[in-house]
User: Fold this.
Amino acid sequence: MLALSFLTVSVWSEAMELTDANFDQIVNKSGKGAFVKYQAPWWGHCKKMKPDWDQLAEKYADHELVTVADVDCTAGGESLCKKQGVSGYPTIKYYTVDKLGEGQDYQGGRTYDDFDKFTAETFKPPCDFKTLENCNDVQTEVIKELRDAPLEKIKKKIDEQKAIAAEHNKKFNDVLEDGKKQMKEMKKKEAGINIRLDICNRYVKALDATDEEDEKKDEKEEL
Assistant:
């Protein structure tokens, strides 16, 4: 008797395809975030990832906060991949509404569960000024402070925050510069240590070689 077995394969809807022609409209002007996989469809790693990515795309199809999409770097999306600095496949980037057009590299896991968790945590509803829903503690504090405040007070608050940000950036850059100087000094010190260690090792080897030659010379004289 011939036994037949059936393999059930789940097929998910494919992710939206992006090219230069629709990238700006979908990523920059839609008011939504985007989670984008740049790929060469025939490449092994891309083929392996496809079912998980397509499952994610199906779950978030027509979602109000995020678009899950593909870019074929070997076909219609080749020029887009170059613009986005893609050099390996697959490369995954995410775009948030507060940083239009600035793709950030996704560094997480590459299973459906990893993608789904990241999407849910990253593409959240914006802070609601009226109800304070989806607002974090800092946002809530600022909104309560400015609620019902006159326009002049709000403008003054903005100027104060700009000054604080400028001072912070200055301190950060100063620390960064100090760090570079310290790193340079450490590398210089490391080079000196390596030179000393190298000359010590070579000197010991030279002494060992001299001792060995002296021993052989003494043995010959004894003969």
In short: Residues 1-10 have pLDDT under 50 and may be disordered. The longest helix spans residues 151-222. Residues 16-122 form a domain with the Glutaredoxin fold (CATH 3.40.30.10). Helices lie at 20-28, 44-59, 78-83, 112-122, 137-146, 151-222.
